[in-house]
Specification:
The structure is a homotetramer of 240-residue chains. Helix content of chain A is 74%, strand content 0%. Chain A has 240 residues and is mainly alpha-helical. Chain A has two domains: 122 residues, Voltage-gated potassium channels. Chain C (Four Helix Bundle (Hemerythrin (Met), subunit A)); 105 residues, Helix Hairpins (Orthogonal Bundle), CATH 1.10.287. In chain A, α2 runs antiparallel to α3, α3 packs across α5 and α7 crosses α8. Chains A and B meet through α2, α7, α8 and α9 of A and α7, α8 and α9 of B.
């Protein structure tokens, strides 16, 4: 019995396993759509009731899925504390919390329902390749996260130094200037904050010349590691 | 006769085939230019008449081209339902619809004329290489489209959670917040919507740090696959 | 005599050749600085006179350099119509035109002086590698320029269709909408033009998802071709 | 004794060396946090006093570290004039200057304290790989810095030519237009300056089409060089 269930839930190559997977995927998609509609203003009472009931059904099914996954797992604790185990838990947990204590403050936990979206990634062929690639460039990506953080800090401090007197309400402190640093170095540039002094503009010029590259290098690293991961996979297939 | 026509229409290495190809390319270009001029305000009646007549001539020629392509094709149905067959059809279809029912509502279909532009891609040497590359990275690109969609959804939900109370008319619902997510993650940053709360700004910081990379990785993947495709082509040429 | 001059002007490995090269480079840099200062408002009469005289000296030296380069060249016509020959000519030509006809309309030609900046690239080691790389990816870059142009046209037509009624003074015609398409697809996003209708925003969403990649792929191609070019150079060095 | 100290300070593989390293890292982090808090407005007198005292302790410890590093170094002068030696000096120097002359003008030097952040990079595994990569692409990166500079200059001159008459207070001179060139070519696009004339918009179109690629190519080069550097490291590990 447990073996049979495992073949359905964990093995997505069997026919029944595929049906189960597609069913869960469609339900995740519908449940996220329901969440999105819920946030629309001016929903009729009828719509709200339908959405509430649908959410109840979703939570029940996801809860059964979660319990079953623990049940069929050879090592339940490993599953519970795995990445997907945590996601599966976070996707249903807020609902029960809300049920236990009907406090308005807890409504904020509803936002955790969006983590269900992460469950969708489970069903993708290329994901394995992505894991290999992530392993290859782990160290470089960490190095660049450190360098990016340092760069954002230096940019924030520098622009604070130049612009604080000219625009004290925007560049109030190094922390406030951090918002400018992030929006500028990622090249988003909303236009809500920008330097107006000559010094600040020249500083921005140098920060951008070096900084834009630093922020985009990790993406290039991941892309090239993914190409490498595919080659490794192809080599493995040939050697088989 | 049919063989001869095929050598002109389908074979773009023969001299007559080249002349035919260049003629169609120039006509596509002129017809798109005419479409562009048509949208200008304050066109004189004379200009409008010239453009209408030119469009009539273009449609007639493209229709003849379309019929001929079906006629010379060894497998007409394969051509009709191929990518270029559909484009060729979409490029003339709106005109006939407009002729049959002279309704204002149908004028919107004129926009389909722009699909003619896609016909221009047919005539490019490196296109074959692009097809090989697209095949290599198909799975990764799909993975990243899925991840990007999930990321845009999580970003929209998160910013809705932080900014909804502060800017209810902009971050009205998760769907409305989606506009912010797209404009921010692609680093366009028009500046029409941006977070103003501390929570929203910190959330944006983390979303940008991870998200900017995710959005630019597919471009890196395609670029590296194109390099690979060229190598494959070169290897094939050597082995010949 | 001509041989000796050639060793100074064309050969930048000899000691005298290096001195000549550095002298020209410094002069280009100073002449561009002078041009920049000239555009500043509120220059004193004295400053303007100094700048005019310095420009006269620069043009004389660059003219002598140009004549000498023709004189020492083994094939003068090849030099004159080469990329650098044209740049060298454009860098001095506007001055003589200005001298011959002292018309205000011709002052616009002064802008051609900035082409002197391009002369500076001549003196760079890695330039050869760049030529090899440009040759490798020529076809792909052309393909992407064609695709980008088509994409910008389709984006312009589409947004015109969606936004023309809502913002007739901004999205007046397909040509006017082109400004939006360029600023959006390159992710600059000044914020002077952006869609406000639901249809326009959804259209922008799809255009950005596909378009941002298309615009950044050529840069990735050039970067990977430059890596390839370095490998080719290294292989050549080993085989020597 | 000096040998023993060296094993603690310079060797970060021994247990005591690791403890020393972590201690310094944590102190750097805390000292930068203190600097950030110091810039916040409305700090209480008590907070300011705590921060001042903490800064004093930090400077004392960093000074001891600096002196010890000189003491244990086999070649003190090499350390003092090395990249990290200079950073270590700049991180404490402003404090002593401030102590000697209690002038308000010197308070600006406090900004140099942020250079402490750069000390944090020292402790990263992948840094060696980054040095190899930097060596590989040095020439190309310099070439692209030159090309980028030239491009920014030509863009500034061109937009000045087109927009100066229409927006004289923004595009006042080539130097003022440089701000637009930097913000546009890095695709930040704050929206504080943008062309409004037809000529300026068409010019921007061409500048963006070529320029966006030029600015992003160096990042691609570094990313691909880092992949190469990893391969070199792996080959070295295999040969051992």
């Amino acid at each position: 019995m447990r073996e049979k269930l495992r073949s359905i839930i964990e093995d997505n190559t069997s026919k029944k396993g595929k049906v189960f997977d597609y069913f869960i995927q469609v339900l995740i998609f519908l449940s996220l759509t329901a969440f999105t509609i819920e946030t629309l203003p001016n929903n009729s009472v009828k719509t709200i009731n339908i959405l509430k009931n649908f959410e109840l059904i979703c939570v029940i099914i996801f809860s059964i899925e979660y319990v079953l996954r623990i049940f069929v797992s050879k090592n339940p604790f490993k599953y519970i504390f795995s990445f997907y185990g945590m996601i599966d838990f976070l996707a249903i947990f807020p609902f029960y919390l809300q049920g236990a204590y009907d406090l308005k403050a807890l409504r904020a936990f509803r936002i955790f329902r969006v983590f269900r979206a992460l469950k969708l990634i489970r069903y993708n062929k290329a994901l394995n390749r992505f894991h290999i690639a992530a392993n290859i460039v782990k160290e470089e990506v960490i190095l660049f996260l450190v360098i990016t953080s340092i760069f954002i800090f230096i940019a924030s401090s520098g622009i604070y130094f130049f612009e604080n007197k000219a625009q004290p309400e925007i560049f109030t402190s190094v922390i406030h200037s951090g918002w400018w640093a992030v929006v500028t170095l990622t090249t988003v540039g909303y236009g809500d904050v920008y330097p107006i002094t000559i010094g600040g503009k020249i500083f921005t010029f140098f920060i951008l010349l070096i900084g834009v590259g630093i922020v985009t290098i990790p993406a290039g690293l991941v892309a090239s590691a993914l190409s490498k991961a595919r080659e490794i996979e192809e080599d493995n297939d040939k050697n088989k």
